[in-house]
Amino acid sequence: MSTNQTGIAFRNKVGSLGLGFMRASFDANNTDRERTIAALHHAMSAGIVLFDTADIYAPTWDSFGHNELLLAEAIRTWGGDSSTLVIATKAGITRKPGEIWGRNASLDYLLRAAEASAGRLGLNRIPLWQHHRLDPSMQFETQIENLAALRERGIFENLGVSNYNAKQLSRAIEIAGPIVSVQNQFNPAYRQESEVFAVCEANNISYLPWSPMRGVNGTPTQPIFETIGNQIGFNRFEVALAWLRSQSSAVVPIPGVTRIESVSDAINGLKLELTSDQLARIDEGLTDSLPIDAELLSDQPH
After folding, report:
1. Rounded to an integer, what distance in angstroms lies between the CA atom of residue 80 and that of residue 99?
2. Which residues contact 178 (CB under 8 A, 6 or more apart)?
3. Using one digit for the tens of pLDDT, what is the confidence trace for 255-264?
4. pLDDT of 81-116, one tens digit each?
5. Residues 109, 64: contact at Cβ < 8 Å?
6. CA 177 to CA 173: how far, in whole Å?
7. What is the pTM of this model?
8. In what order do the strands lie in the sheet with 181-183?
9. Helix orientation angle between 224-232 and 236-246, rounded to the nearest 10 degrees
10. Do residues 270 and 17 lie in contact, with contact meaning Cβ atoms separated by under 8 Å?
11. Which of 193, 288, 286, 291 minimizes the C-alpha distance to 248?
């Protein structure tokens, strides 16, 4: 199947919205766990199928895979048809005793990580496995060759990447073949490297923006979303989600959820199509984008 056909099939399956729940593992307690599982059940019953996690999402280095186990529990206790779900996870970031974080894109490491993720998630094959971060100690082409070799092991159905710029994404397609998704940061506060959208559109790759509500929650706050929301009967999260979707036909937002109310906001945001006037007002009202994260710059292969 070609890159275009693979990407189209993936997009048709996942639809226009996915969900992440990283915060449930980094702020983990029993109340959050139960509340998050209830939110995930609500989302699954509402027809959302794409759920994004990662092996690194955990309270401590020695609870690696915490978020994957949380998702597995939610799926196991849901009661619906789990075969319809598209479970996405990521690997490539390491954590060691003393909370020493690193990167590893060697084939041996990624193979072991993917196998471990499949085991924690209770899956024979992972619907979407994503390379989480580039390894600055390795040549870029070598890393992509490792992804291609990992695909041949049959551990996952679809390959995605994360935190790749436009040039890197294009080169990855040339080397590794079909890539169905890229997960980069993009939100009201952080609007860097939008040229990746064009690569996604040309190759039918889904763009999964991480931290999509940054600037709606937290600092710097962008009040224009609440201003417009009050005028049209939507809340600021729903307006921000509609704005995000307007950036490209490739965008599939994956807002973070730990509450049923957040799931409802995300679903309601799909009902809103902003007018050209409203989009122009948002663009005028946004503050300057935050600079590219230093951590992402340090991950670039030499």
Report:
1. 37
2. 1, 2, 3, 6, 7, 158, 159
3. 999 999 999 9
4. 999 999 999 999 999 999 999 999 999 999 999 999
5. no
6. 5
7. 0.95
8. 18-20, 50-52, 86-91, 126-131, 156-162, 181-183, 206-207
9. 100
10. yes
11. 193
At 30, is the pLDDT very low, low, confident or very high (cuts 50, 70, 90)? low
pLDDT(171) > 70: yes
Tokens of 234: 């939507």
Cα separation of the two ends of the chain: 33
- Give which of 208, 213, 214 is closest to 196, Cα–Cα: 208
Mean pLDDT of 246-263: 95
CATH of 3-287, one of 2.40.128.50, 3.30.70.100, 3.20.20.100, 3.40.630.10: 3.20.20.100
Place of tokens 């186990």: 69
- The residue to which tokens 């590219």 are assigned: 292
Kindly list the domain boundaries of the chain, sorted by start residue. Answer: 3-287
Contacts of 252 (CB under 8 A, 6+ apart): 11, 14, 15, 16, 17, 18, 50, 181, 206, 207, 208
The pLDDT value recorded for residue 79 is 93
What pLDDT is recorded for position 28? Answer: 64
